[in-house]
Design a protein that fits this description.
By secondary structure, the chain is of the alpha+beta class. The protein is built from 4 helices and 6 strands, in the order H-E-E-H-H-H-E-E-E-E. A 6-stranded antiparallel β-sheet has the order 1-2-3-4-5-6. A hairpin with a 7-residue loop joins strand 3 and strand 4. It is globular, with a radius of gyration of 18 Å. The N and C termini lie far apart (43 Å).
């Protein structure tokens, strides 16, 4: 059975628009409430890469994380890499799981235009009592690497 057949049988229009992105109201530590976008990322998107980066660090594969995601600004040499592993990734191993729900993210804000800018920052919700956690992606050739993060 094709999707079109199923849509006709169920009475849905064959060319229905995809559902609007879900939103969630979150409260910042300052007491201010904001509407955030619940994102189920498309494969290859910065959001999907963010979830994958979080999951990799949670698994403890710090060398794999460095090789796949660490950009030249963050990992500019052996001393920087050692520091990122010990400090940034050490903390992220304990906290990143609060910043995604499976493959979904709650994004409070996006700074930059991925079509034209060389850096884009996603602010992800990591739970009550925390400000949204930024991850800045920088364009490196045809790829995107992490410039900074705060999970």
């Amino acid at each position: 059975m094709t999707l079109l057949t199923l849509a006709v049988l169920l009475g849905a229009p064959a060319h229905a628009e995809p559902p609007a992105a879900a939103t969630r109201t979150v409260t910042l530590p300052t007491g201010k409430s904001i509407d955030a976008k619940v994102v189920t990322p498309e494969e290859g998107s910065l959001e999907a890469r963010t979830v994958a980066a979080m999951k990799l660090v949670e698994s403890g594969d710090l060398d794999g994380w460095i090789a796949k995601y660490c950009g030249p600004t963050l990992c500019e040499g052996p001393e920087a890499i050692t520091s990122v592993k010990r400090l940034n990734l050490g903390t992220a191993q304990r906290t990143a799981s609060a910043c995604h729900d499976g493959d979904n993210l709650v994004v409070t804000r996006v700074k930059g235009d991925r079509a034209t800018d060389d850096a884009v920052t996603l602010y992800t919700w990591c739970g009550d009592g925390r400000m949204p956690a930024p991850v800045t992606w920088e364009r490196v050739g045809d790829d995107w690497k992490i410039r900074s993060f705060s999970w």
